[in-house]
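User: Just a sanity check before I run the rest of the batch. Below are the structure tokens for the first item. I only need the designed sequence back.
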């Protein structure tokens, strides 16, 4: 961010074209696949072309994202998985090895454990909260370490500072998925991570109307990810760039409201007799509450809970609650609920989910922008 600017100001002004294009306060949508060369000679990856993610819409939103994360560069992609896959394939090659926390988003877990081995890339799942396991797992061919800021759906807070130190000492690339925390609550690049990835479909956009991803970090690392993405073709459409650019302007307002509402809702659930477990780092009983309070500006809008190991009880609650929408994804204006065993982690076997601590009865809640009192009243009637 520009020195002296706070995040609310950067969300509005960082990366914006000066002078404004045609005087437009809002950046226009550039619906053009091809741009005039103007007699300049450029390499393939520098040609102005929509698939190469460098139209004016891409350039502006990427500049804003880089500023928000305190990074040199950013890249937007056609989905969160496009960001993750392009990033991993840009730092890994045949014969390489990666360390990753064992409790990852289902799509990432599948890509690392099922797809990377087909490219001759090995992996080891480690406990992201136990550095003793990292040293035992590292190899001569290890190139990177992949973790999440807040894990989905159990809301674990890993030893992020330990990961950064471990990677620096060994020359590894540190990569973190910062989707659930957002730059409002945590900025990994400023904390020493090499790369951060986002599913921008979630909080960054915040309106449940696009699919997008983002990669932020050093100019060198992001440039490598862009060259890989140019070949893979995971382009973000200019219309989606426009909507992401619009959504980012209210990110701070939305996330801070969701921080407050989620904390109140989690506290209510923790005290309810029917609830046996609540996963939310804002609660004092969370095993890493002190760590989260020290590192994060807020605890986020995501939580999960269980009504015993009872799938039928979970289903009854989801049928009786009125405000939340039974749907996958997270980070939107409306509160969303889902059972990860049937959505985000359905690609994992029952054994893999059990190993990660994800029961079939677990309910994940993505708190939206509704009034906290209305959500609590609705949950109370559904639990009665």
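Assistant: Here's the designed sequence for the first item:
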């Amino acid at each position: 961010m520009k020195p002296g600017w706070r995040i609310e100001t950067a969300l509005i002004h960082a990366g914006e074209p000066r002078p404004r294009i045609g005087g437009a306060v809002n950046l226009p949508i550039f619906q053009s696949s091809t741009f005039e060369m103007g007699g300049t000679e450029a390499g393939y990856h520098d040609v102005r072309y929509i698939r190469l993610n460098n139209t004016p819409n891409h350039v502006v939103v990427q500049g804003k994202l880089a500023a928000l994360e305190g990074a040199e560069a950013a890249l937007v992609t056609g989905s969160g998985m496009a960001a993750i896959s392009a990033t991993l394939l840009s730092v890994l090659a045949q014969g390489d090895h990666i360390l990753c926390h064992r409790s990852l988003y289902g799509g990432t877990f599948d890509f690392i454990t099922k797809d990377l081995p087909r490219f001759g890339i090995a992996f080891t799942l480690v406990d992201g909260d136990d550095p003793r396991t990292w040293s035992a797992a590292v190899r001569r061919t290890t190139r990177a370490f992949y973790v999440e800021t807040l894990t989905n759906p159990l809301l674990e807070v890993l030893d992020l500072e330990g990961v950064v130190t471990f990677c620096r000492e060994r020359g590894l690339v540190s990569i973190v998925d910062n989707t659930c925390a957002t730059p409002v609550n945590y900025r990994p690049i400023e904390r020493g991570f090499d790369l951060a990835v986002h599913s921008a479909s979630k909080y960054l956009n915040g309106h449940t109307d696009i699919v997008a991803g983002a990669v932020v970090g050093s100019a060198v690392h992001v440039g490598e990810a862009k060259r890989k993405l140019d070949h893979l073709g995971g382009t973000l459409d200019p219309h989606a760039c426009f909507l992401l650019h619009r959504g980012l302007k209210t990110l701070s307002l939305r996330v801070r409201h969701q921080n407050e509402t989620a904390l109140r809702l989690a506290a209510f659930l923790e005290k309810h007799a029917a609830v046996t477990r609540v996963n939310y780092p804002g609660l004092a009983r969370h095993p890493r509450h002190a760590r989260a309070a020290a590192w994060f500006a807020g605890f986020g809008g995501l939580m999960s809970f269980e009504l015993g190991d009872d799938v039928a009880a979970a289903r009854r609650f989801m049928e009786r609650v009125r405000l939340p929408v039974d749907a996958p994804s997270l980070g939107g204006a409306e509160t969303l609920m889902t059972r990860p065993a049937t959505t985000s982690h359905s690609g994992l076997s029952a054994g893999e989910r059990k190993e990660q601590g994800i029961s079939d009865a677990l309910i994940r809640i993505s708190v939206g922008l509704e009034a906290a009192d209305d959500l609590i009243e609705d949950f109370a009637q559904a639990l009665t």
